[in-house]
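STRUCTURE:
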């Protein structure tokens, strides 16, 4: 079993709530900047640890924003599976609810210690530790942010152990219009407006006009010019979840993710079926 196939089996198991890992999984970089996961790695691959709750308790030195904190005498920690609204920066305004999410996280860690529960990939590309952060009283702060409508769920394979749970919590908060879900910013927009949303998280709705498969990727062209990209190694994962990408031509879909730009057109990388909210 090569490439990302073992990872695909693991992600498919998420949807049936049946963890699958019995063999080691490795991460390696390919030519062109791509990243692959699998159980038959090249010599320079790095083995990823299994999900393992940590017993040690830490004091939080600083809360940097709604989904990032610094451990005293330790690393900066990025919460797995959640994205809080962005605080203002010099080059862009903040998102609605950013300060509220940061202040909530500060309140939750004040006067308590936290435990870091890791998954397969321990660090992101910025060197931040990746973890579910749980207080010594047992409160999962990732889930708490979602429950209060202060963040949206996100998924970054291979760290998907609790993705289904987190998306379900978000759906409840969204239905109740809690927190950020009262804001227009986090509503669903037509795909034709995607070019106005570069470098932001958005939920977009449009008709799939064509599906094109190439050597490594499958591309879905939506009405209005939005391009979706998925890795061919993950197509089985989407099909098993009822989101067969090759059968979406002519269907209207609602997708979510960070909007980028490629060759002057808006672009969204679809890594997991949970990013496809609906198919009409």
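SEQUENCE:
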């Amino acid at each position: 079993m090569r490439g990302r196939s073992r990872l695909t089996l693991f992600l498919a198991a998420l949807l049936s709530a049946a963890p699958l890992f019995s063999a080691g999984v490795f991460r390696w970089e390919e030519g062109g900047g791509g990243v692959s996961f699998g159980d038959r790695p090249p010599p320079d691959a790095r083995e990823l640890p299994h999900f393992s709750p940590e017993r040690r308790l830490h004091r939080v030195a600083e809360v940097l924003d709604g989904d990032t904190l610094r451990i005293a005498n330790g690393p900066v920690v990025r919460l797995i599976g959640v994205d809080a609204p962005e605080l203002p920066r010099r080059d862009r305004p903040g998102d609605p609810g950013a300060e509220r999410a940061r202040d909530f996280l500060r309140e939750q860690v004040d006067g308590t210690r936290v435990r870091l529960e890791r998954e397969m990939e321990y660090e992101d590309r910025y060197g931040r530790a990746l973890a579910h952060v749980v207080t010594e009283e047992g409160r999962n702060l990732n889930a708490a942010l979602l429950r209060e409508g202060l963040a949206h769920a996100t998924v970054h394979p291979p760290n998907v152990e609790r993705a289904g749970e987190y998306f379900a919590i978000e759906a409840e908060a969204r239905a109740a219009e809690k927190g950020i879900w009262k804001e227009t910013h986090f509503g669903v927009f037509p795909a034709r407006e995607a070019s106005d949303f570069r470098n932001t998280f958005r939920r977009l709705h449009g008709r799939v006009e064509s599906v094109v498969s190439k050597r490594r990727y499958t591309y879905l062209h939506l009405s209005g010019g939005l391009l979706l990209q998925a890795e061919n190694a993950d197509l089985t994962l989407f099909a098993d979840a009822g989101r067969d990408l090759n059968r979406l031509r002519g269907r209207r879909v609602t997708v979510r993710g960070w909007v980028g730009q490629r060759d002057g057109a808006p672009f969204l990388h679809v890594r997991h079926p949970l990013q496809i909210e609906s198919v009409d």
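REMARK: The two ends are 35 Å apart (CA to CA).
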